[in-house]
Amino acid sequence: MQQLITDIFLTNLRNRVVNGFTDETLSKARECLLDFIGVSLAGAVTLKGKEQDVANQIETIDGCHVIGMQKKVNMNVAALLNGISSHVIELDDGHRIGMLHLGSPIISSLLAVAEKEEVSSKDFLNGIVVGYETAIRLACAIQPGHKLKGYHATGTCGTIGAAMAIATALRFDFEQMKSAFSAAVTSAAGVLEMIEGDTELKPFNAGRAAMDGVAAAYIGKARFKAPEDALGGKRGFLKVMTDNAKMDYILDFNNKRSMIETIYMKPYAACRHCHPSIEAALHIKENRSFKLDEVENIHIDTYKLAVAGHDHTDIKGSNSAKMSIPYSLAVALCTGKAGIDAYTERNIKNPKIQAITKKVSVTDIDELTALCPQKRVAIVTVNTKSGKFTERIEYPKGEPENPLTKQELEEKFYGLAIYGGLTKNECDVVIKEIENNNFNLAKIINVICK
Fold first, then answer.
1. Could you give the CA distance from residue 203 to residue 201 in angstroms, rounded to a whole number?
2. What is the pTM (predicted TM-score) of this model?
């Protein structure tokens, strides 16, 4: 009898835990936790009041902390709100081949459950690693067809990754894990229409994935009987979510390197498709001498998946700006920055930035599309009255081939956490605690949820 694809996949995930993770893998999990905390603290500030409104309108039980909010709520709502906060400023980690964000759904769900269940630091880190492994492998297997169908992998694969993170941290047996996995598969949702215009619902996809991941995990814990093959069945996840699944990602676990080591971390507060163009603009600004009023036009050649939904020059607000390659390039070229402050109303309404944005055109070309997703390339050409300036970026800062250094990651954390209300000393406490072999999660939560 042929073994079921779901069983093969889950067995391989469980074996990863049994065999243990390398120091490099666990170090990356700690980095992901630190990065998640920073972006969540800053995100909570930008959502000030809205999350409180949600908490007030949903009947809650005093249970789990919410980052940036003093009120405690039940763990489902905590996962939802933390998931929204961690994604709203577009600075959370992700994966270029899977085309999804990881920390926002996975760590948001795990943090809420870990607080309730008093999970150890070892189990917590194992949960992060397996959650990322699950979501990245599933996303890589179904992309790019999944995105072309209009699905948002952060919502779909993020839900399943969140459930598997919890299942690992709570040490589920195989039956419980399969039940949780199957419940998450049928909960997987999220459409990319949520990125259009100035909508504020893209982060909801991440928050909802975190919340549904929690629900799926507790369905599994209660041992609800699962179907035979939720992943590979004739109406299972792989059949529904794409027309051409890449089965190597599902079946081949021979590579000892964990998927969490292949993620990117963002230095710029925009959609990742904008980052190659941002970086090119920053290099041009740093190394070339011309005045902004000398710019005649700017052209960007890039890959096909970057263009749709990201080439607009009519900026309707902050969320629209974060999705726009032309605006992101323009603000980087004009200010030399592309952090959280670059996407404020003040910059969006700046006449000079608006003028440069309107001069930008974006085109996909076959040569660069063929390189995607292994490389996400942008070639930026700035045509001025005094000459032409061109820059090509293949691996923007933060990719595994061009990673943030420990110092750069900590600088990012300090900037976002202090923006989110922590003091320098409190930031020091969080960094030092996460670096401990057996860190105290409750201590970290008390600092970031004051």
1. 5
2. 0.94
